[in-house]
Amino acid sequence: MLFLYLTAEYKSKEHGLNQVVLWDKIVKRGDNTILDLRQANTKYYFWDYGNGLKGNDNVTLTLSWNVIPNAGTLPKIKGSGSHVIHFPDQYTGGRV
Question: Coiled coil located at which positions (predicted)?
């Protein structure tokens, strides 16, 4: 069994490191392991209580996973790549 999760990491004026889980999924043995997430929404809201996201040029997305064993230790494995996104200085007032 696998526990997959996507995190976003960023710095803000109030905190040196912020980590947010945006999405997660448990994949059981025998499940369809092809995940097509091109049209998926985030599972959890992504917001900052201050202004840490607005205009932030370094929000790093990372996919990690845990192999959930039948017995023994729980290893944490981080994906070998990451993706940096840039947030705009202004947000829209409605849907685009």
Answer: none
Closest CA to 47 of 13, 81, 10: 10
Give the model confidence (pLDDT) of 25-47 as tens digits: 999 988 888 888 888 777 788 87
SS3 for the chain is CEEEEEEEEECCCCCCCEEEEEEEEEECCCCCCCCCCCCCCCCCCCCCCCCCCCCCCCEEEEEEEEECCCCCCCCEEEEEEEEEECCCCCCCCCCC
Residue 57 has pLDDT above 80, yes or no: yes
As a whole number of angstroms, the distance between CA 28 and CA 12 comes to 37
